[in-house]
C-alpha cells in the first residue's frame, strides 16, 4: 500500500511503494532488443531505524513527551558555548514552532497510533542492510555546459516534444537540453542516455535544463492543474555542504507560473523551516504570480518505529517541513474558470507522515494525497525535480538524478509469469485487499 492511512488529520505514506507503483511492467532497451524486468526502488533508502541526533537518545511521539531523554552513559566533555541573545530570525522560528507544535505532536501521535495496527511503523526490519547507492550525478554540470549553446529565439522554438525512444529503441538523437522529452509508452523503460542507464516511468515528460533554459517547457504548450516545486533555497547548510547550487528568493519570481498554470491550478511550494522563506512565499511570491494561499501543510518525518527523526523541540533541525498550497487566480482567465462549486476546498494544517529517504532532498510524492483536490485526470508538473513520476511532467537541472539504475533493483523476469502475477494482483485489488485504511 502506498497510502497506508487517510485520516481526518492527514495521511501516512509508504514513500517507497509510491515510487514502485510506476515501474510495472518495465523493459530494457539494449542494442535494439528489449527484455522484461522486475523493477523496484531500493528499499534500504527508506529504512531509518534510529533518530538522527544520537543513538542513545530518542524522540517519542507519546503523551506530550518530545524532549530528548537523558543519556544513560557518561556524557562527554564539551566546550562551553558563549551565551548569545537570539537574533530576529531565531525568535521568529521559535514563535512559529510554538504556534504549530501541538498540531504536529497531536496529529503525528494520532496517525502513527492508527497506522501501527495496520502493520506499519512497527520497526520493519525485513530488508537486507545494504549500503546506500552513491552514484555521482553530473547532470547539473552538463546543464552548465549546455548554456554555451546559442539560445533559440522564441519564434523559432520548436513546439511539442520529442520521443525518448524510437521504434527501434534508439535514443542517440535525443536532445535533452532544448526540448521536452516524452516516454509515451504504457510501461517503464530502461534506456541509455549520455552514457548512463536511467529508468523512465510511463507517460512521463521531462526537460533537463537550468533556470535560464526553461523556455522549452513554456513552448511545450501544456497548462497544468497541479504545479509542485521544491526550490533550492539559500541557507548556511547548503553553502557549507555544496551539495547543490542555491537560488536567491527574488529569482523565483521569474518562474513563468502564469504561462504554465491552468485556471484554479493548485500550486504547492516546499519551504524550509526559516520563517523568512515562508513569509516570502505567502506575501510576495504567490501574490506576484496571482496565486491565493489556501493552506499550509506539514510533512512529518519519522523512523520505521514511528518516532520523530529529530526532537520536536530541537533548536536546530526539526522533524517536519512546511509546504504552502495556493490556487492560481487570474482575472484574464475568469471566463475559462470552472464554477466555484466545482472546486474542492483544501483543508488547512494537514499532516503527511512518512519515513524520509536517506538520500538527500528526496521528498515524498504528493500525487495520491492531492488527487482529490485536482481530479484524477489532472495534468501535473514538478519544478526543480530530481526524479520523475508516472503521468507527470518534470523540470530541473538534475531531473534524472534518482532515475539512475543504481537506485533500483532490476531483475530479468519471464514475461508470461509476470502477466499472470499482474492478473492476480488486480483481482486482489478489485476484492479490496489493497485499499488504504481510513479513520
TrEMBL record:
It holds the Pfam family MT-A70. It comes from the Eukaryota. GO terms for molecular function: nucleic acid binding; RNA methyltransferase activity; site-specific DNA-methyltransferase (adenine-specific) activity. GO terms for biological process: methylation. SUPFAM superfamilies: S-adenosyl-L-methionine-dependent methyltransferases. Residues 418-439 are annotated as: Disordered. Transmembrane segments: none annotated. GO terms for cellular component: cytosol; nucleus. Coiled coil: none annotated. InterPro entries: DNA_methylase_N6_adenine_CS, MT-A70-like, SAM-dependent_MTases_sf. Belongs to the MT-A70-like family. This is Methyltransferase like 4.
Amino acid at each position: 500500500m502506498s497510502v497506508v492511512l487517510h485520516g481526518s488529520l492527514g495521511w501516512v505514506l509508504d514513500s517507497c511503494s509510491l515510487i514502485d507503483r510506476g515501474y510495472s511492467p518495465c523493459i530494457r532497451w539494449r542494442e535494439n532488443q528489449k527484455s522484461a524486468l522486475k523493477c523496484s526502488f531500493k528499499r534500504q533508502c527508506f529504512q531509518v531505524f534510529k533518530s538522527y541526533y544520537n543513538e542513545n537518545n530518542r524522540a517519542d511521539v507519546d503523551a506530550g513527551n518530545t524532549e530528548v531523554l537523558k543519556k544513560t552513559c557518561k556524557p562527554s566533555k564539551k566546550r562551553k558555548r558563549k551565551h548569545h541573545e537570539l537574533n530576529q530570525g531565531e525568535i521568529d522560528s521559535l514563535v512559529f514552532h510554538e504556534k504549530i507544535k501541538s498540531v504536529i505532536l497531536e496529529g503525528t501521535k494520532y496517525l502513527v497510533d492508527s497506522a501501527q495496527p495496520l502493520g506499519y511503523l512497527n520497526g520493519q526490519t525485513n530488508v537486507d542492510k545494504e549500503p546506500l547507492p552513491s552514484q555521482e550525478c553530473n547532470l547539473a554540470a552538463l546543464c552548465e555546459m549546455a548554456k554555451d549553446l546559442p539560445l533559440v529565439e522564441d519564434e523559432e522554438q520548436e513546439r511539442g516534444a520529442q520521443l525518448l525512444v524510437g521504434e527501434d529503441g534508439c535514443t542517440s538523437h535525443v536532445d535533452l537540453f532544448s526540448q521536452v522529452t516524452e516516454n509515451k509508452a504504457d510501461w517503464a523503460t530502461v534506456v541509455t542516455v549520455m552514457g548512463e542507464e536511467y529508468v523512465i516511468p510511463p507517460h512521463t515528460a521531462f526537460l533537463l535544463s537550468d533556470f535560464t533554459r526553461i523556455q522549452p517547457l513554456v513552448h511545450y504548450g501544456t497548462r497544468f492543474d497541479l504545479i509542485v516545486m521544491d526550490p533550492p533555497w539559500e541557507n548556511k547548510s547548503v553553502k557549507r555542504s555544496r551539495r547543490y547550487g542555491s537560488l536567491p528568493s527574488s529569482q523565483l519570481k521569474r518562474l513563468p507560473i502564469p504561462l504554465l498554470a491552468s485556471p484554479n491550478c493548485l500550486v504547492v511550494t516546499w519551504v524550509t523551516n526559516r520563517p523568512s522563506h515562508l513569509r516570502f512565499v505567502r506575501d510576495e511570491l504567490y501574490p506576484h504570480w496571482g496565486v491565493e494561499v489556501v493552506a499550509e501543510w506539514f510533512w512529518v518525518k519519522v523512523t520505521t518505529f514511528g518516532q520523530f527523526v529529530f526532537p520536536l523541540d530541537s533548536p536546530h533541525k526539526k522533524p517536519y517541513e512546511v509546504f504552502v498550497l495556493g490556487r492560481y487566480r487570474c482575472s484574464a482567465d475568469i471566463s475559462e474558470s470552472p464554477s466555484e462549486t466545482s472546486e474542492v476546498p483544501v483543508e488547512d494544517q494537514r499532516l503527511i507522515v512518512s519515513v524520509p529517504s536517506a538520500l538527500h532532498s528526496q521528498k515524498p510524492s504528493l500525487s495520491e494525497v492531492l488527487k482529490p483536490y485536482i481530479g484524477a485526470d489532472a495534468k501535473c508538473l514538478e519544478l526543480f525535480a530530481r526524479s520523475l513520476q508516472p503521468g507527470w511532467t518534470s523540470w530541473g537541472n538534475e531531473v534524472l538524478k534518482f532515475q539512475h539504475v543504481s537506485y533500483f533493483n532490476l531483475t530479468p523476469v519471464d514475461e508470461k509469469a509476470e502477466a499472470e502475477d499482474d492478473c492476480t494482483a488486480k483481482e486482489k485489488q478489485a476484492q479490496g485487499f489493497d485499499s488504504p485504511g481510513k479513520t
